[in-house]
Design goal:
The chain is an alpha/beta fold and about 190 residues long. Helix content is about 40%, strand content about 25%. It has a domain at about 10-120 and about 165-180: Maf protein, CATH 3.90.950.10. The longest helix has 18 residues, at about 55-75. Keywords: Hydrolase, Magnesium, Manganese, Metal-binding, Nucleotide metabolism, Nucleotide-binding.
Length: about 190
């Protein structure tokens, strides 16, 4: 990792218009670079995977595809990083769970990929996802909420907001940025 951050402003292109994802990127970069001003620009970026990824592999690829799309289609030449977050589900030994993959692409083309913790999902929710429903819509129906995916998400609902979609995304991004902070070890 050789990214140089000489400027006091770090410019980040986020591959989403979802405020939860944009805020998570801003929070993560602000935590990792407390002496910099973080400027985030949002961009719709296709994942080229299903709207509800059902495997770890598709979720990871979706995040990486979004980050690469941002890099290739950003109108600005002065971005330092291109960031994407992709929520997905899969079935593990412990049962079904939702999680996210994050992808951070430096302006020098170096890709960092990270993953969040798992949130267990009830079997009845997972079965609906297998029937091509999206997690946000299922959660809205179960908890009588509106557009929870742009708020606390399933994570917020199932943890009584002790954790939220944004907090989990932020943590995954912070961890994925370790190579930028300590390039001598990566």
């Amino acid at each position: 990792m050789t990214t140089k951050l000489g400027s006091t402003v770090i410019r980040v292109c986020v591959g989403s218009t979802n405020p939860v994802k944009v805020n998570a990127a801003r929070q993560a970069f602000s935590q990792v670079f407390p002496n910099h001003t973080i400027h985030c620009e949002e961009m719709h970026a296709p994942s080229d995977v299903a709207d509800q990824p059902m495997t770890e592999a598709d979720t990871r690829i979706g995040a990486q595809n979004r980050a690469r799309y941002c890099s290739e289609h950003s109108a600005s030449n002065d971005m330092d990083f291109f960031v994407a977050l992709e929520g997905g589900v899969d079935e593990f030994e412990e049962g079904a769970a939702t999680f996210a993959y994050v992808a951070i692409l430096s302006n020098e083309g170096e890709l960092m990929t990270g993953r969040s913790a798992n949130l267990p999902l009830p079997n009845k929710v997972y079965k609906r996802l297998q029937a091509n429903e999206e997690l946000g819509q299922v959660m809205d129906e179960l908890f009588n909420t509106d557009n929870i995916r742009q708020k606390g998400g399933a994570i917020g609902l199932f943890t009584n907001h002790a954790a939220t979609r944004e907090s989990v995304y932020t943590q995954a991004l912070v961890l994925a940025l370790a190579p930028v902070l300590h390039p001598e070890h990566f």
